[in-house]
Amino acid sequence: xxxxxxxxxxxxxxxxxxxxxxxxxxxxxxxxxxxxxxxxxxxxxxxxxxxxxxxxxxxxxxxxxxxxxxxxxxxxxxxxxxxxxxxxxxxxxxxxxxxxxxxxxxxxxxxxxxxxxxxxxxxxxxxxxxxxxxxxxxxxxxxxxxxxxxxxxxxxxxxxxxxxxxxxxxxxxxxxxxxxxxxxxxxxxxxxxxxxxxxxxxxxxxxxxxxxxxxxxxxxxxxxxxxxxxxxxxxxxxxxxxxxxxxxxxxxxxxxxxxxxxxxxxxxxxxxxxxxxxxxxxxxxxxxxxxxxxxxxxxxxxxxxxxxxxxxxxxxxxxxxxxxxxxxxxxxxxxxxxxxxxxxxxxxxxxxxxxxxxxxxxxxxxxxxxxxxxxxxxxxxxxxxxxxxxxxxxxxxxxxxxxxxxxxxxxxxxxxxxxxxxxxxxxxxxxxxxxxxxxxxxxxxxxxxxxxxxxxxxxxxxxxxxxxxxxxxxxxxxxxxxxxxxxxxxxxxxxxxxxxxxxxxxxxxxxxxxxxxxxxxxxxxxxxxxxxxxxxxxxxx
Length: 541
Fold this sequence. Notes:
Layout: H1 17-29, H2 37-45, H3 60-76, H4 87-91, H5 95-101, E1 114-115, H6 131-143, H7 156-166, E2 178-181, H8 183-195, E3 201-206, H9 211-218, E4 222-229, E5 235-236, H10 238-244, E6 249-255, H11 267-280, E7 284-287, H12 303-306, E8 312-317, E9 330-335, H13 345-353, H14 361-373, H15 376-397, E10 403-406, E11 413-418, H16 429-440, E12 442-443, E13 445-446, E14 455-459, H17 464-481, H18 492-500, E15 514-515, E16 521-522
Parallel strand pairs: 1-12, 3-4, 3-6, 6-7, 7-8
Antiparallel strand pairs: 2-9, 4-5, 8-9, 10-11, 11-14, 13-14, 15-16
Helix pairs in contact: 6-14, 7-14, 8-9, 8-13, 15-17
C-alpha cells in the first residue's frame, strides 16, 4: 500500500462534501476556512482526524488531499483555478469589429460583392507600392545588415531619414525627436499610453477613427468627443472642443487629413485649434498618417510646423501614402520647442518603445532610400486615381434621392449622409447597410462605426469599374426604397426620371465580363469575390 506522501493533490470533487459546504459558508460570512480547520475537524472527527492514517472517516486519501488543499489555501489564498483577464484586456473594445460582426450580411447570390468598406489600399491590387520602395527592401534584406535587433527607438540612420522627411522650414527636427514604431497604430498607442492615466480623459474627433477609443478606454481613460461639422467641410466645432477640456484632460487628438471624412484642415483652422490647446495647456496628438495625401487645390499643413509653444506628438508612417500597410512602419515625431516633454515624456516614450523591442528592422534599413528616392510622379498617380473615384462617386450619389455625399479633399474616403426619414423601412443606418448587401452586394461601413449615425463611409481605392458599378447599385437600391410623403413638395417628374435610371443588366458584372487589376478581361471568378468585406482596420488600421 503506498504511503500517504505518494498521493498527488486532487480536485475539489475528491474533497469531503462537508468541507466544500463549510468553505462556501465561510467565504460568504467573511471568515477564513483555514481559521476553522481545527475546530471544524475536531468537532466532526476528533482531534486526531487529520493525523491518523487509521481513521476511517475521512479516508486516508481524502484526509491527505484535504490537508494539502487547506495548506495551499493558507499559503496563497487560492482554492482552485480562476485565471482572470487583465483590466486592459477586459476594457479593450473595438467598435468596428463589434458592429460588423453582428451585422446580418447575406450578399445577393447573382451579384458579386463589392466591398467599399476596406481601409487597405492594396487589397484590390490596382494600387501598388513604388518600385523604388520594393527595391530598397530587397537591398536591405540582401545586405544582411538588418537581421538582428535594433535599438528600441530605431536605427540612427533610419531616424535621421524620417527627421529629414518630416522637417519643414518652420519646424526642423532631428533623430532624437523620432521614435520608430510598428505602424501608425502603435505610434498612437504609445502616445496615448505615455500621457494617459486611469480616470483622466482625452478628446477625440467625431466622426473619428475607432482606434482612439479602443486604446484610450483600454487604459482606463474616459473618452470625450468634439464634433466635426459636415456643413462646414468637416471642420471641428471649436467652441464645443474647448468646452470639453478640464483639469483631467491629457490630450486632444487631431486627425488631419481625416479618416473617415476625407477632409483637410486649412492653415487658419489648425491655428485656431492650436490656440485652444495653448490657452488650456493641453498637448496634442496629431494623427497625420495621410500627410500630403491631398487632392490638387488643397494643401496639407502639419500641426508641428505651425506650433510655436504647444507640445505635439505627431504620428505618421509609410502605410497610406506609400501603399504598404503590411510593412508596419510608423513613427512618432516630437515637436516641443519649449522643452515641455523633456522632464518625463521623452523618457516615457523611450521606455514604452522597449515593450516590443522596436519595429521591423528590414524596413528600417530601407527607409533612407524609400523616403528620398520615391519619385513625386508616384504620389501624383495615386492621388489621381483616388480623386477620380471621389469625383465619380460624388457625381452619381449626389443625384440619388435621400443621399448627401460630401466631396472629400484628400485621404481615401467619402462620407455619405442618409436621410433616414426618406427610407422609413429602416430604423438605423445598420439596417440600411444590411439590406443593401442583401439586394445589391455592396457593403459600406455604417456611420455608427465612427460614432456618427445616419452616414456611411465608402472607400475610394477600388478599381474605377467597380467604383462605378457599386455607386450605380447604391442608386438602384435607394430609388427602390425612397418614399415621398404627401405633405412634402417634390417634383414627381424628378422621381420618375430617377426610376427610369434603373439600368438593365448590361454592366460589366451583370454581363459576367470581369476586369482583373491589370485591366484584362476575365470570365472567371470576380476579383471582388476574393476580397473580404473588411480589413484589420480595427487595429490599424
